[in-house]
């Protein structure tokens, strides 16, 4: 049996379609590089609701726990939009993050040369862009208690959420950001609203302490979240690694993704803490969602899912060479002029999901 | 005595410099249009800390309460950056918003034709952009209790903030947004994270109820905050009025401002509830901050402060004609080729704060 236990969770919408293309790469690796994975597949999101009545059944959590890495598609769609809160497909992701302790969500925003024109920003502002958002993903306002909608004495409703961070939660995700910065351009921009939020004040203090004590060689900058949104949109190349809470990281990483103009190209990883043997849980997924409007049409861009698989190979299986092979194949296919609808440019050849997938395998 | 009681709070950084240019306009109005204001001036922010030891002294709050409108400059700067939380200049603004019940912060993001090229976005994506962000400004995570940094049993720190909204707080700011939309392009995009936040779920429900019951003629769309950041950056012209909580409104309005590329041109208004006689407290300020790096150099752009004064005339004093005069004067000066450093373009004439101010008065 392989020591590479891989759980695949295609999910909803275009998830299964783009995951299918990764399967081709896996078959190719099996044939040509004699790498074999111990693969299982599970249900999550709307698909799991339909099959099992829960967006994240216990078996899925157990399978994810047992796996060395999880390749995730995407969840959600109009079919499940009117379900009560506890039955939202999104809870599938949230529960996996929480139960597996996947506290560091890494979202690169990279502009590949052939796609610099796809951005809504002027090409020279984004050409060569390569930034990384490190988002805390098991704490903050996503999970803090108390939370709920309550009826007050006057019969009116009141909605409550709690943003809460301990210094340990901040420190461990900060370390991930500093570590990454060392392998990149050595700069961390830590984002909060320390001017109005108490958790933001603590965030700023702890990140500063970790930086001074453990990473004095890494440049650290503190920035308010509103200003960061502004700077991302006006001068994105000033950033290397951006570190933020669950909520700010969510909004800023989507913004960063949007400004590349090629959301269909962006992978992400969510990592847990290494255990004594150095093994860490990890989940890899495209930044784009389930895109129900184009699901089933065969036109979705499989690149983000492919590149998520490349991240998986690199970080969970230490297969740097294979990861690079896939990344290079994707770049070559783009350079060759193939484009899915989302990144179509004049003069290029528009293709569907499977033609794109096949082309990538051919380039491998 | 005039019934137009105007309180001016220049604040810090470039605040006093740009407010000075508005004074010229006020003198011109006095001379040429026989409009007189009952003007007083007060301290706020760092200036107030230096003079009185508090970022918002009681006299300033009392003067603001007594005034029919407040013209505000900006607060903050490195001089006060290391002060403890309770002494931050920013508390000056926060206290005024809270004590005067200024719950609706209106931030237009407008691209004037001569400045379409100033945006980091491609000119055709922003040319003619005219959207309005309505941000709740006395509630949510900015003020919710409990909040603070506490020491846990294990001696470690924990930071806590509470996001809390009652249905009445949501309803009143939603009404402001719907009302504005009726005078514009009749569309409201309400922003939250109803998929992960309980206050967001309530926000979505209440805005929907108010829309259906009181504004069935206004198109209402609900959007997650992360998606809204994305959409603002990729297709900003899809929006008319964007409605959000204190926190989301803060981040998204700064983003919207940035994508105009001309932050130095953007005014804002923060409004309270009308009393029985229809009188409402209101504060007008530029969207840009105190810009300490250029303070005292005479190069700041006075336009945002001028346009804030125009908003004040329109909304607090019902002087539509005078408001239009100022707005037209600003546009003419730009069309004539004058530019302050922040909006400088090749082929234009670069001028300082007072030359810009004088030119605007001359165009009146
Ligand atoms: C699906 C949703 C709960 C999620 C989030 O808000 O975290 C998504 O936006 C993301 O960023 O992964
Ligand atoms: C000064 C600061 C407290 C303030 C805020 O966060 O509200 C500012 O960013 C703003 O938007 O007016």
TrEMBL record, chains A, B:
<dbReference type="GO" id="GO:0003862">
    <property type="term" value="F:3-isopropylmalate dehydrogenase activity"/>
</dbReference>
<dbReference type="InterPro" id="IPR004429">
    <property type="entry name" value="Isopropylmalate_DH"/>
</dbReference>
<keyword id="KW-0432">Leucine biosynthesis</keyword>
<dbReference type="InterPro" id="IPR024084">
    <property type="entry name" value="IsoPropMal-DH-like_dom"/>
</dbReference>
<dbReference type="InterPro" id="IPR019818">
    <property type="entry name" value="IsoCit/isopropylmalate_DH_CS"/>
</dbReference>
<keyword id="KW-0479">Metal-binding</keyword>
<feature type="site" description="Important for catalysis">
    <location>
        <position position="193"/>
    </location>
</feature>
<comment type="function">
    <text>Catalyzes the oxidation of 3-carboxy-2-hydroxy-4-methylpentanoate (3-isopropylmalate) to 3-carboxy-4-methyl-2-oxopentanoate. The product decarboxylates to 4-methyl-2 oxopentanoate.</text>
</comment>
<comment type="subunit">
    <text>Homodimer.</text>
</comment>
<feature type="domain" description="Isopropylmalate dehydrogenase-like">
    <location>
        <begin position="5"/>
        <end position="360"/>
    </location>
</feature>
<keyword id="KW-0460">Magnesium</keyword>
<keyword id="KW-0560">Oxidoreductase</keyword>
<feature type="binding site">
    <location>
        <position position="107"/>
    </location>
    <ligand>
        <name>substrate</name>
    </ligand>
</feature>
<feature type="binding site">
    <location>
        <position position="135"/>
    </location>
    <ligand>
        <name>substrate</name>
    </ligand>
</feature>
<keyword id="KW-0520">NAD</keyword>
<keyword id="KW-0464">Manganese</keyword>
<feature type="binding site">
    <location>
        <position position="254"/>
    </location>
    <ligand>
        <name>Mg(2+)</name>
    </ligand>
</feature>
<feature type="binding site">
    <location>
        <begin position="77"/>
        <end position="90"/>
    </location>
    <ligand>
        <name>NAD(+)</name>
    </ligand>
</feature>
<keyword id="KW-0100">Branched-chain amino acid biosynthesis</keyword>
<feature type="binding site">
    <location>
        <position position="97"/>
    </location>
    <ligand>
        <name>substrate</name>
    </ligand>
</feature>
<comment type="pathway">
    <text>Amino-acid biosynthesis; L-leucine biosynthesis; L-leucine from 3-methyl-2-oxobutanoate: step 3/4.</text>
</comment>
<comment type="similarity">
    <text>Belongs to the isocitrate and isopropylmalate dehydrogenases family. LeuB type 1 subfamily.</text>
</comment>
<feature type="binding site">
    <location>
        <position position="250"/>
    </location>
    <ligand>
        <name>Mg(2+)</name>
    </ligand>
</feature>
<keyword id="KW-0963">Cytoplasm</keyword>
<feature type="binding site">
    <location>
        <begin position="289"/>
        <end position="301"/>
    </location>
    <ligand>
        <name>NAD(+)</name>
    </ligand>
</feature>
<feature type="binding site">
    <location>
        <position position="226"/>
    </location>
    <ligand>
        <name>substrate</name>
    </ligand>
</feature>
<feature type="binding site">
    <location>
        <position position="226"/>
    </location>
    <ligand>
        <name>Mg(2+)</name>
    </ligand>
</feature>
<feature type="site" description="Important for catalysis">
    <location>
        <position position="142"/>
    </location>
</feature>
<protein>
    <recommendedName>
        <fullName>3-isopropylmalate dehydrogenase</fullName>
        <ecNumber>1.1.1.85</ecNumber>
    </recommendedName>
</protein>
<dbReference type="Pfam" id="PF00180">
    <property type="entry name" value="Iso_dh"/>
</dbReference>
<keyword id="KW-0028">Amino-acid biosynthesis</keyword>
